[in-house]
Amino acid sequence: MYCLRSKLVASRGALHIQHRLLLSGQIQLSASDRASRAISSHLHKYPNISRKFISTETVNTEKPTVSSKFGRKVVIASSLIIGATTIFAILNHKHAEAENNKQESKKFPSSLKRGGPKNLLVADHLIDEDDSDINKPRLVILGSGWGAISVIKALERDKYHITLVSPQNYFLFTPLLPSATVGTLETRSILEPIRSLIKGISAHFLEAKATDICINEKLVELSPDSGEPFYLPYDKLVIAVGSLSITYGIEGIEHCHFLKSINDARRIRKKIMDNFEKASLPTTSPEEKKRLLSFIVCGGGPTGVEFAAELYDFLTEDVVRYFPLILRNEVRVSIIQGQDHILNTYDAKISDFAEKKFRRDNINVITNARVQKIEPNHIVYKMKDGEVKEHDYGLVLWSTGIAMNPLTKTISEKLEDQKNTRALITDNRLRLKGVPDSSVYAIGDCSTIENPKLVNQLMQFFVDADEDKNGRLSYNEFQVLAKKISRRYPITKSHLKKADILFASYDKDKSGTIELEELNAMLEDIDKKLTSLPATAQVAHQQGKYLGKKLNQIAAAHNAKIYPPSSDYSTDTDKPEPDVDDLLPPFSYAHFGSLAYVGNAAVADFGTGWTWMGGMSAVYLWRSVYLSEQVSFRTRALLALDWSKRFLFGRDISKF
Ligand SMILES: Cc1cc2nc3c(=O)[nH]c(=O)nc-3n(C[C@H](O)[C@H](O)[C@H](O)COP(=O)(O)OP(=O)(O)OC[C@H]3O[C@@H](n4cnc5c(N)ncnc54)[C@H](O)[C@@H]3O)c2cc1C
């Protein structure tokens, strides 16, 4: 023990000199040097405790006191911490060295080759690839929104060489975007960096825009913000690029704000504050004040309604506290809606609740009105009865629905089978129509599932179902058929659920059986009732999850050469090799309800007439649903903090 102590004391002297040299930059310390330095500095800091611990000179024969016991514990704990830190530092150093060596020993091909229809560089290797990526099928996902992230979250590591491509390197939680326009939530609280989301499955990320796809060559053309365009090869491609706002070619649309991106929210927040500050100037005329403080929302869907509600909260909770009171009386919020009611896709009770609430809050709801043009300072709209009206504004938000983005438009124009002008058409397995080999999928807002024409398959359905071949379907045969159709086409599920009621209502001649004409009438009616799925985060999320899981199954089946058995939902194909995709179940959407915030109150429509409308209790439900839907613990914590911060201190009204 004594020997150890004298060694340490001697090394303290040496380290003192070394420390000075280090400060003057003359020597570099290794990890083990750093560890010795830590011990030495410990000796400097706690000379008595340390000496007592290592010395044999003053052995205390009395019973240790409480303080000496405590001192001993502190010394043991510190030594353990120092020891662990030292080991960690050494291991870390070794790991970093090994990583560096690995990187250096890796031979990246010095340059990319050119190819494809436009003779661009072909990125057949990426700079962060490693050996485990080689020989895996290449899965390229376009987009970093709801659809893309849900695919990523469902994918298993090691099945594919995955590359995600998007011009934005974050995921945006769109349902809370209206809250970011007035500072209820900070913009960063609703964003999650993509790289942190893809790390778990060792995927790669490229910040670029996809501008085209070459179906035959299996190449995606990418355009980075700066730098030359290039091709990225794929074996499987998922298109999840979302949509743009539909503008109907309205004249003067450039004067409007949109609410699709985080920058839109930032711009709106700044504009609102700009208008309030300008209106507070003594030189601003009363007419100009009125105009600046007139906020118009075009579109009475959930986004428009939630923005109006957030604006109202901001006015009543913050503007009144900080701005001249006189301005409060000048503020006007209006919603211009083309339909009879706002929130018209929700249950009628909900529309009614929201309209009454807005009326009480002095939000001007103008229904049955179509915007004709937007001048720099006023908007022109036409009422259903033909009357044309004008309205001054300081800010207009345009939120009336969705349209194709440039990539989806390009793809749609390329493919014969794509005739829809709003979205890419897929089959019910989410495969892009017009691509024969199940290599391209489209999900989310940029796509729509083609509804089956049941009536076109009438004969096949009837013959298959008529087991006893007597030319009519008994109730049992009909029930089996109804199940089979709803398994193969899940979108028909809700229409075929009550087989007994259907059977009774289409058995027109009350024969106790369904004949061919009766089945024909039923299928025609169902075809008419089928609608497209809404463009919501809920749909994009479920599609992404379904696709991610399916891609895992496809890779596993190909690796093991074991294919799933054919069943009710299998598609009959004459392909020589089994297409696993045809054997797996189609996509089936389950609606869990729609929520909307209406200003210190919220509404929920769970479908089939079940609704919930209320004040703060509904707001807490709304918040807890969104908290649970977060893609990371980080954003969950930030949201909770923002809501608490707003409650305690109000919204931040600084403008920058
Ligand atoms: C303000 C607002 C509020 C909403 N509220 C709700 C709600 O409460 N509930 C609900 O269910 N839905 C809501 N929605 C709708 C929901 O956000 C969309 O339905 C959902 O985002 C669709 O997901 P997506 O993956 O298809 O597209 P997005 O989430 O829009 O993602 C598209 C992604 O593709 C990227 N991209 C675009 N072009 C390219 C390209 N050329 N190449 C590569 N990447 C590209 C984009 O950067 C983006 O990352 C709201 C939408 C908005 C705007």
UniProtKB/TrEMBL annotation:
Origin: domain of life: Eukaryota
EF-hand domain sequence ranges: 453-488, 494-529
Assigned keywords, A-Z: Calcium, FAD, Flavoprotein, NAD, Oxidoreductase, Transit peptide
Membrane topology: Peripheral membrane protein
Main location: mitochondrion
Keyword Nucleotide-binding in annotation: no
Alphabetical list of PROSITE patterns matching this protein: EF_HAND_1, EF_HAND_2
GO cellular component, as recorded: mitochondrial inner membrane
Alphabetical list of Pfam families matching this protein: EF-hand_7, NDH2_C, Pyr_redox_2
Location relative to the cell: Mitochondrion inner membrane
Gene Ontology molecular-function annotations: calcium ion binding; NADH dehydrogenase activity
CDD domains tied to this protein: EFh (cd00051)
UniProt family annotation: Belongs to the NADH dehydrogenase family.
PANTHER family named among the record's database cross-references: NADH DEHYDROGENASE (PTHR43706), NADH DEHYDROGENASE (UBIQUINONE)-RELATED (PTHR43706:SF50)
Name of the molecule in the record: EF-hand domain-containing protein
